[in-house]
Design goal:
Shape: globular
Number of helices: 10
CATH topology: Rossmann fold
Order of helices and strands: HHEHEHEEHEHHEHHHE
Structural class: alpha/beta
Helix content: 40-55%
Radius of gyration: 18 Å
Length: 276
Amino acid sequence: MNHEPIDPSLKKNRDYYLEFGEFFYRVFDNTQFLNLGFQNSNQTFRHPIQAQKQLVLEVARTGDFKPNQAILDVGCGFGGAAAFIATSFQSHVTGIDVFKYHIEQASDRQSSTNVKILFGNSMDMPFEDDTFDRLFSVESAFHYENKNQFIHEACRVLKSGGKLVLADILKDHRAKNKWLTRVIQGGIGSPNLFDVDLYRLSASEAGLEIKQVRDISKQVRNTLPVWIKFCIKKAGKLYHHYGIKSFAMIIGFLLEFYLICSHPSFSYQIIVFEKP
């Protein structure tokens, strides 16, 4: 697989997605989704993709997505969420991603006239001002080197009354264990986790208002048994593609994410911003 030359500041994130993006795509039956999922206590999912779709639905419903809206998915990965939103809400969805191999894998998603996947950077979006009704980013913003610039760009491309919806891993501003924060940030490929107050300040400076903050740590944590059972079921395929060391690393990766959703220093939030 050939990959484009990449800015050194993005290399760690590229390596992160080379390791786990391909894992998601190959092992989980070519799924186009790249997220941990969402499961309420009264739900029972047998396959991770059910939980992954549920998370995208929660983002869309929290952000009040509607038919015929122009929607932008920032950090769209393989394009699964973009295609799912376009179909579920009869909307027009554009996805951008900084990694060209994601876009190559997402090419079949462009067969629909309502979905378009493009190369684009979250901090320098290739669109005119006031283009989109909704903008969403699922498990992507915590990777961004300059989140303030991303928030400014989101405000610029949103129409008046438009909304930005993030599903993001956050730190708690009261967290005192700086060593643990550094370890977690390094493990998930994040240069600098934000807390809600930092997002609120960034939004204010950009011209956005935070309208809703919804903690879904428990619902994300609920999906861990689904992932573990599925990994055990696919153990042969995992071993064939990755070897025992990588298999153990993948299980460790999943456990690390769910530790984040259990530890008081971190949380998984859906945040809704609005442009006046």
